[in-house]
Amino acid sequence: MYKLVTKGEGGSREELKRRMEVRKYFSLADKDGDGQITKAEWFKVLNTAGVPTTMREVDGFFKILDKDLDGKLSFSEFLGEESHIERIFRTMDKNNDGFVSKEEFHSVCPNLTAAQVDTAFSTFDTNNDGQLNYRE
Q1: What is the DSSP string of 18-79?
Q2: DSSP single-letter state for residue 101
Q3: Any residues with CB less than 8 A from the CB of 39 and at least 6 apart, and which?
Q4: 92 vs 15, 55, 87, 99, CA distance in Å?
Q5: Residues 6+ apart with CB under 8 A from 67
Q6: pLDDT, tens digit only, all 136 positions of the chain
Q7: Rounded-to-integer distance, Cα 136 and Cα 125, Å
């Protein structure tokens, strides 16, 4: 069934039913049909459904689940699934400390020169601590 209701891959019958049920509610919330839920859409759905919610609560929900920081939730973000970017970051973070060092970065991208790695870090290491965290 379309990769367990769009990208859930395999899984049990119960998991398929759960994903289909969540997908139904996700689609109802996605008023413009773009495959993503905005804060305003989620706020309206919750309050219309009788779940009194403040925009501050919605902001907190999005802060946790919006992995790509675009201000919207995709279906996989809505489910709390690991994103493609998170998998790449986890692959690069060899020692699992939550940071990617220049050495870890270079081990995953061995075709880059040391100067290119330095350039990448000078661009993306916004707090200049010599390592990248997931948000950077």
Answers
A1: HHHHHHHHHHHH-TT-SSEEEHHHHHHHHHHTT----HHHHHHHHHHH-TT-SSEEEHHHHT
A2: E
A3: 55, 58, 59, 62, 71
A4: 30, 35, 9, 9
A5: 77, 83, 85, 86
A6: 333 334 445 567 787 888 888 888 889 889 899 999 999 999 998 899 898 999 999 999 999 889 888 999 999 888 888 777 778 888 889 898 989 999 999 998 899 999 999 999 899 899 999 999 877 7
A7: 6
Alpha carbon dihedral 76, 77, 79, 80, in 10-degree steps, equals 120
According to DSSP, the β-strands at 36-38 and 131-133 are unpaired
pTM for this entry: 0.59
- Listed residue (34, 17, 24) closest to 1, CA to CA: 17
DSSP 10: S
Closest residue by Cα to residue 61 from 43, 76, 75: 43
